[in-house]
Give the backbone structure.
Amino acid sequence: MGTGIREFSSAQELLRFIDAQLTDLRKTLGDLLRVIEELRAKSELDKRIRELLLRLSKQGAGESSAESRPEIVKLGESLELVINPSPSVELRYLEDLAETINRKIAKLQAARKGVEQLAEIGLEAKLDVILVDDVPTTVFIKF
């Protein structure tokens, strides 16, 4: 993932860059959604097994054993270490990732529409583009 400034020789080159990003993200999202579907099935099975074990052990309905909860350790400001996650915990993290990818796709599609307007007028100029997480946020036109 890139954050910084990058030079493009034309609006068409920037469109190709955005299209490549969209293609990669859509593929990643498709692969991720397949994993999520598998985890949903595992999560549902895990939930049913845990409910059965709770009934068999005669624990209260709202209680759960400490072994069934994953340990989450913060490593610095923005990194979490999840030890032995249940399928439902892993599913929650992957669904959050899918939402993040969807938001990035939407931003790229919006940026693409703006760049298409530059391409339509036949602008032939160098473009310095500020990218944040490989999404164009600002375009400097240089004649």
About this structure: The two ends are 28 Å apart (CA to CA). Helices lie at 11-57, 87-120. The first strand starts at residue 4 and ends at 8.
